[in-house]
Specification:
Blueprint (H helix, E strand, L loop, with lengths): L1 E4 L2 E4 L18 E2 H4 L5 E5 L2 E9 L2 E6 L13 E7 L2 E16 L2 E10 L4 H21 L8 H27 L7 H34 L3 H14 L1 H4 L3 H8 L8 H9 L7 H13 L1 H23 L4 E7 L5 H8 L6 E8 L2 H17 L4 E7 L2 H5 L1 H4 L6 E6 L8 H13 L1 E13 L6 H7 L6 E2 L1 H6 L9 E6 L5 E7 L3
Parallel strand pairs: 10-11, 10-13, 11-12, 13-14, 14-15
Antiparallel strand pairs: 1-2, 3-5, 4-5, 4-7, 5-6, 6-9, 7-8, 8-9, 14-17, 16-17
Helix pairs in contact: 3-4, 3-5, 4-9, 10-11, 11-12
């Protein structure tokens, strides 16, 4: 007789048992925070309550303060109860089988001596309660907490999009399918409409920022207004590819490299004229992505020229959180100087690195040995420990991260700037980009309409990111032409 595993048949004598301690079977254990993410399971042991760390059919463990008086030798036949929310889901007895240190606290393992845990039943119970809570939360009427002024802004935005849809649908109906240059005529009309729609949309966005600033001290008002926006306005934009991708985040993280490519390529994507206009409205709103890229490319060209004037034979550049790395491809496309250029592109998304490499390599090939591109696939956690990450590469002439600190607190941003600065060559330059905090920022559109949370910084806060580096470093902050983002330039002394 044979057993089937992964499509390959095995003889019984090929099946291996456990080795070492694993020869003693243990019931499968489940990490509570993984299998039950919505509601914490609480265990009452000897009239004390703790969140469960993990559990199996025959036991469980919990984490408690280090000095809690648990004794694995004396604690036996303790009353054990499990609760999910207000529901009691298990009652039995147990004994303390093990106490061990765990992240500055202690983890206590309990072996059940009366009763057992029906894991599947517990998971089903958790899912039922979580589903009921989601339904109750989703049906909760928060609109009563939304001001009339804010509702008027949303109504004006919806009216703008509906009237635009009606206008463009009529255009498509009125131009015969076989009319000469039909597609080109419709495209011209889309671009003409978009110019007016974008101007009106900008004013709506500015009004949204006024109301957002009024809510800052009231989290419940912000929550209500955000839900109202996502339920009322966001669906009207979702036929636009740029809005859909920003809101749905199909790669699992906001601002993925395809969102950036939309801003670079400016193609009119969509099945209908209205779809294409909505997409164009999104890319026009995200114009800062392209202008920021151009700023970086121009700075790279300026610094490479200075390296040549100083007689340097190479010019090393690293991009942290590189995305599609369009600035690198554009820089290499026009490169005519003598120093050999070496790009190191670092990102958490393998597909982004694949795109960036393919985008840059034709230019590397054209330069015939005067340029190279290598890619590092790193996690976001490794980004936060940039000092360790950059030990894998040589000191750089330029390091830039123009969209990464948008997701970092000030303290983490300060630490990253310090770590990156340490990996610059003498005379090297660090470029750190961030969204700009102002009365006309994109915060309302980005967070309320597309559920995309970023950090917005003033010029003073940009400079403060460099407070942990030597005082002799030269600092400069420059805004892009849209005034929606700015870049901190840090130059290390020679």
């Amino acid at each position: 007789m044979k057993s089937e595993s992964n499509g390959k048949m095995k003889h019984y004598e090929e099946l291996t048992g456990g080795e070492g301690k694993r020869v003693f079977y243990r019931a499968e254990r489940f990490r509570a925070s993984v299998v039950m993410q919505d509601i914490s399971v609480v265990v009452d042991v000897d009239d004390k309550s703790f969140e469960i760390f993990d559990m199996s059919m025959s036991g469980l463990s919990f984490v408690c303060p280090e000095k809690a008086p648990w004794d694995a030798e004396n604690e036996s036949d303790l009353p054990v109860k499990l609760k999910l929310g207000s529901s009691e889901i298990f009652q039995g007895k147990g004994k303390i089988s093990r106490v061990e240190a765990h992240e500055g606290k202690q983890k206590v393992a309990v072996e059940l001596t009366k009763g057992y845990l029906d894991i599947q039943n517990i998971l089903d119970h958790h899912d039922d309660i979580a589903l009921k809570r989601r339904i109750q939360s989703g049906m909760q009427d928060l609109s009563v907490q939304v001001s009339d002024a804010y509702k008027t802004i949303i109504a004006d935005a919806v009216y703008l999009l509906r009237s635009t849809r009606n206008t463009l649908e009529k255009v498509e109906r009125d131009i015969p399918a076989n009319a000469p240059r039909r597609d080109e005529r419709i495209q011209d009309i889309i671009l003409s409409c978009e110019e007016e729609v974008h101007a009106r949309w900008k004013k709506i966005s500015e009004r949204g920022m006024v109301e957002l600033n009024k809510m800052r001290s009231d989290p419940s008002a912000i929550k209500a207004a955000k839900r109202y926006t996502e339920n009322t306005l966001t669906p009207k934009l979702m036929s636009g590819a740029s809005w859909w991708r920003a809101y749905m985040k199909p790669l699992g993280y906001p601002g993925d490299f395809q969102v950036m490519n939309y801003a670079y390529n400016l193609a009119l994507l969509g099945d209908t004229a209205h779809d294409k206009l909505c997409h164009k409205l999104g890319t026009s709103t995200g114009e800062f992505i392209a202008t920021r890229m151009t700023m970086v490319k121009q700075k790279l060209a300026e610094l490479a020229s200075k390296a040549q004037e100083k007689g340097h034979t190479d010019f090393k550049v690293a991009s942290l959180g590189c995305g599609p790395a369009q600035e690198a491809a554009n820089f290499l496309q026009g490169y005519t100087l003598s120093p050999s250029v070496q790009f190191t592109l670092i990102d958490q998304d393998h597909d982004a690195l694949n795109y960036a490499y393919k985008n840059c390599y034709p230019q590397v090939s054209r330069l015939d040995g005067r340029a190279s591109v290598k890619c590092l696939h790193a996690t976001f956690i490794e980004f936060l420990a940039a000092g360790n990450l950059f030990k894998k590469i040589e000191a750089q002439d330029v390091i830039y991260a123009v969209g990464l600190v948008d997701y970092l607190t000030d303290k983490r941003a300060e630490r990253m700037v310090r770590d990156l600065y340490q990996n610059l060559k003498p005379g090297g330059t660090l470029m750190i980009g961030s969204m700009k905090d102002s009365e006309k920022s994109l915060e309302w559109q980005v967070e309320f309409v597309t559920d995309w949370q970023l950090e917005y910084r003033t010029e003073e806060e940009m400079l403060a990111m460099a407070k942990n580096i030597p005082a002799e470093a030269k600092l400069e902050v420059q805004a892009d032409k849209t005034n929606h983002c700015h870049i901190l330039y840090v130059t290390k002394p020679e």
